[in-house]
Specification:
The complex is a heterodimer. By secondary structure, chain A is mainly α. Chain A is built from five helices and no strands.
């Protein structure tokens, strides 16, 4: 069962969404699409990610990401694997930051409660993270499509 | 003057400074959405209402930026340029996003420097976020007012926003 967050924790999560998750999400997508010239994620993947980020626990979301990373994607869809590889790495680091740098877990909780609270907080962070990823991905998808059409016309 | 009043004063000072930019973007929006007006009466209003609603109700700046990006991705009129701009090909949505992410962020930093709001404690970070949110809300209100004014002028046949330079 989800643990109740204090108003201070909720406030902190909102600040983190703006100051950490948003720039990190933009960075992740820009690195893939603009620097590595990968294709933006197709809408089916975006819809799937959004759906799972809202409906499931963090553990289930993480399992989904790992599953997508480890799938045997065709060469044409190898960019999808790249995305999930980067996302998994980011999530693993984010869990460490939740416990350390962000100081979101109160001191003195037992192991079970710490794990539960970490999962609950990660579930909330992931909802925002995926929202930011989806928005930037979709914006860039339109831009990439426009550039390709212009190039094809030449 | 207490801190909250000082903050509102600083935001109002910046609101005067960014009024011109808000008018420019309001005109850009009116130009970009004007064809909507002809085909679906009042549907253009929902574009700005959606933006206003999210700005006024959210606790996060990123929600506003994500909304703008979603609209850019979904609707070609959010990607429409404006001949009066320095870059006439830059779409309305991109211009708005850029202004909020860059210029408005700078104004937020200016206010925080003047109010001695640093960036180290949780309280400081929360106050910074509130300053940024309030600035964006003011800006969007001003922009929407200009947009509505421009649209109503066109509807009443008092001038067409062709986007040509004055």
């Amino acid at each position: 069962m989800a643990m109740a967050l204090t108003p201070a924790q909720v406030r902190k999560l909102n600040v983190l969404s703006d100051t950490v998750l948003y720039p990190d999400a933009v960075g992740l997508i820009n690195k893939l699409v603009l620097e590595e010239e990968a294709d933006p994620l197709p809408s089916t993947q975006i819809v799937g990610l959004l759906s799972i980020s809202w409906a499931n626990t963090y553990g289930e979301f993480y399992k989904f990401v790992v599953h997508q990373r480890d799938r045997d994607w065709s060469a044409a869809k190898s960019d999808i694997k790249k995305f999930y590889t980067d996302l998994e790495r980011y999530l693993t680091a984010l869990v460490r930051r939740v416990r350390g740098e962000f100081q979101l877990i109160p001191q003195g909780l037992d192991v079970k409660s710490t794990r539960q609270m970490t999962d609950d907080i990660m579930a909330l962070l992931v909802q925002d993270l995926v929202q930011h990823l989806a928005a930037e991905n979709n914006r860039l998808a339109v831009e990439v499509s426009r550039r390709r059409k212009n190039y094809a016309r030449r | 003057m207490n801190k909250d009043m000082r903050m509102m004063r600083e935001i109002n000072i910046q609101a005067i400074a960014f009024y011109e930019a808000a008018v420019k973007l309001g005109d850009h929006a009116a130009f970009a959405f004007r064809d909507l007006n002809r085909s679906k009466k009042n549907s253009h209003r929902s574009q700005m209402t959606g933006l206003e609603n999210i700005a006024e109700s959210t606790f996060k700046v990123a929600d506003i930026l994500d909304y703008i990006k979603k609209q850019i991705a979904r609707f070609d009129y959010w990607r429409k340029g404006y001949p009066r701009n320095a870059d006439p090909n830059e779409g309305f949505g991109e211009a708005l996003k850029k202004y909020l992410e860059n210029d408005m962020k700078e104004k937020c930093d200016t206010i925080c420097r003047r109010l001695e709001i640093k960036d180290s404690t949780d309280d400081d970070k929360y106050k910074r976020q509130q300053v940024y949110l309030q600035l964006i809300r003011q800006f969007i209100r001003q922009m929407v007012v200009e947009y509505e004014y421009r649209i109503s002028k066109e509807e009443n046949g008092n001038g067409t926003n062709t986007g040509a330079s004055a």
